[in-house]
Specification:
By secondary structure, the chain is an alpha+beta fold. It is built from 3 helices and 7 strands, in the order H-E-E-E-E-H-E-H-E-E. The strands form 2 sheets. The protein has a 5-stranded mixed beta sheet. Strand 5, helix 3 and strand 6 form a beta-alpha-beta unit. It is globular.
Length: 154
Amino acid sequence: MGIVDQRLADLGFELPPANPPQGNYLPFVRTGNLVFVAGQGPRRAGELIHRGIVGADLDLEEGQKAARLCVLNVLAQLRLACNGDLDRIVRMVRLAGLVRCTADFGDQAKVLNAASDLICDVLGAAGPHARIASGTHALPSGMAVEIEAIAEIA
């Protein structure tokens, strides 16, 4: 078990199997040492777990749970890109997150903080990253949160 996998276990998380694409795109693309991970929703084994609107159907804490599951799915895709060895992640470069929320919900950053905190806890010094957290009125399949990522790998 590698360092990243051990940190995940120590935090009580297990990576879900990588979700298949929901359309005509690749779940990740590697170019040079960068891996671009397509938007990951809060799915487990292909099943949407967190559906709804944050600020209406879901509260902040539920939005944060959705964000954590999204980022676990990002890591699952990175595991494939790294041939099973998450210790090959040199740096998480960027996370971009969308929160499906009400027009008056202003805590998108707090929702995405849950994903950023988990990435930093799991990747250690390789975890700090640039980020955007935005709100939207709709996401595919009614998901509450979607996160895409860019990572540098060795």
